[in-house]
Specification:
Elements (H helix, E strand, L loop, with lengths): L2 H9 L9 E3 L22 E3 L19 E3 L10 H6 L5 E3 L8 H5 L9 E3 L11 H8 L5 E2 L36
Parallel strand pairs: 1-2, 2-3, 3-4, 4-5, 5-6
Keywords: Chaperone, Chromatin regulator, Cytoplasm, Leucine-rich repeat, Nucleus, Repeat
GO molecular function: histone binding; phosphatase inhibitor activity
Organism: Salarias fasciatus
Length: 181
Amino acid sequence: MEMKKRITLELRNRSPAEVAELVVDNCRSTDGEVEGLSDAFSQLEFLSMVNVGLSSLAKLPSLPRLRKLELSDNNLSGSLETLSQKCPNLTYLNLSGNKIKDLSSVEALQQLKALQSLDLFNCEITCLEDYRDSVFQLLPQVTFLDGFDQEDNEAPDSEGDDDGLCLSLSHTHTHCRPVIG
């Protein structure tokens, strides 16, 4: 299903301004861009666009109240400065499984002053020597990177939905995996 159609369905006869959470995972972006979202989603606090084929965030509308953004398993490689312009209050950003290769790509996130948790798991950048130290140095506002703080303490589960099915991934600093796709 294409993204615009999915967003229309998810509205469930509400106006965009009434929506605080929007999940459009696994639908399709026709051109690698955000489609069907507009500045009218002014109250949006949580947005999940996992595995939708995004390669750009250029058409992301202004979402000033957005706090949590899930963008894992897309084709994003950079242009993250859009996030600081359009979503200045992000506290949580999941970019795992994207095509982010180097520190210069995440440098744009320095402007996200409220950002506390960043996930880059399964991105090529995690293969860089001193990856974690470098990201924490580049983004001092970030408390948790890939679910762990600088002392390797696991982030608390703020969702409180631990139903016992969560598998703990081995968190050694050699969690580099070949990126497929």
